[in-house]
Amino acid sequence: HGGTVVSATGSQLLDVLVDGETIAAVVQPGSTALGADLFAAADAVIDATGKYVIPGGVDGHTHMQMPFGGTEASDTFETGTRAAAWGGTTTIVDFVVQTPGQRLQDTLGAWHQKADGECAVDYGFHQIIGEVNDESLKGMSELVSEGVTSFKLFMAYPGVFYSTDGQILRAMQSAADLGALLMMHAENGIAIDVLVEQAIARGDTAPYFHGTSRPWQMEEEATHRAIMLAQLTGAPLYVVHVSAKQALEQIATARGNGQNVFGETCPQYLYLSLEEQLGAGFLDGTGGFEGAKWVCSTPLRSRAEGHQDELWRYLRTGDVTTVSTDHCPFCMKDQKDMGIGDFSKIPNGIGGVEHRMDLMFQGVKSGRISLERWVEVCCTTPARMFGMYPRKGVISPGADADIVVYDPAGHTSIGLGKTHHMNMDYSAYEGFEIDGHVDTVLSRGRVIIDGGAYLGSAGHGRFVKRELSQNLI
Ligand code: DUC
Ligand code: ZN
Ligand code: ZN
Ligand code: ZN
């Protein structure tokens, strides 16, 4: 009551009536449109005066307890979705991992076992195809009917998830037949592996060299190749975690040509850079390993080269379509530290599921994006992109009552472990002072964050059976 409801298309002082798990009405304050004073009859009223009332965040890219790099991502579905709730994210879409030799359907079952009954907020799945073969291709349609309507391939990580161009072509043909979204990790992994080997052989073993051995040319080239294969096959293409401005140029060109190509970026690429990673670790006399905190793929890029400014610009033009976190947390102790003396053994990933809404709101504060664009890239478009609209991503009658009351005058400090709820022994955003604060979070009508208190529970979150993407041309 009394807040400014922000949607992708505008902002207005409106009251929102929740009945059970869904939104019953959105009305002018004081309206008697429904025949009576709504709020006199309500069981509970949340005062949102002076605050923004936005749809719960939709993070389309997370990896809870993902087996990777010889270890497993440190957030479970329970801890990771609880952290998401603290940060105003009420839906995640996580990745089921198929490794060679497994049936897709079996891996989906295994991921349901990990997540079902554990999550604090609603969750869906994408499917990683780790081995493109006849059986996997056949299995795709069954997954679509089970609400897993997007498939991720890797042009990186030879020997782990890597697909050849021929395999990519075949998977894209199947995706095109089904109308399913093909997600791509676009880096030339074959060439990168040579650069990595050469760096280690030279003695360039510190974390910083993770970034320099994955230069932007490798991302641009793979992005271009994926776009051409998608154009040939007609598959809708969603390029994940884009960090190089040159890769975005490729995406912008394809979009300009009318192709169904979408770019995703993540807060780490908008706020953090290779230079900071260098300053933090490589030359500080501590042995240089602090930089491992920011080892992820695609890597952080050079601020001096202007990638961040271009990413923000493309966020405005729409060629960056969504902002997700690629939340893939690892602790420094016993996980990242496996790579002391050899950066290639550092598990790749940054945790950030809790901070996305806050970090992207800083873009509003600094005038880089509008208030409405904030909601669009963090809530509404991810819901449409991944086939969950209008149940998710919008405050309108009939939608799930996933609602965040966001205080633009509040403050959030991101310090060491103590101020976040992710299962990590550090924060990639340590020292960030956020203008803004997530005050109240509702998930399907239930208050799960109230001021400083967590009122949710493991198992409240439900699996979201997704439709095909609603964001295609
Ligand atoms: N990149 C990461 O940084 N972590 C998980 C997988 C990936 O592609
Ligand atoms: Zn990836
Ligand atoms: Zn070319
Ligand atoms: Zn990822």
UniProtKB/TrEMBL annotation:
GO terms for cellular component: cytosol. Belongs to the metallo-dependent hydrolases superfamily. Hydantoinase/dihydropyrimidinase family. The keyword Metal-binding applies. Keywords: Hydrolase, Metal-binding. The modification N6-carboxylysine is found at K152. Carbamylation allows a single lysine to coordinate two divalent metal cations. The keyword Hydrolase applies. SUPFAM superfamilies: Composite domain of metallo-dependent hydrolases, Metallo-dependent hydrolases. Residues 52-447 form the Amidohydrolase-related domain. Its cofactor is Zn(2+). GO terms for molecular function: hydrolase activity, acting on carbon-nitrogen (but not peptide) bonds, in cyclic amides; metal ion binding. It holds the Pfam family Amidohydro_1. This is Dihydropyrimidinase. Transmembrane segments: none annotated.
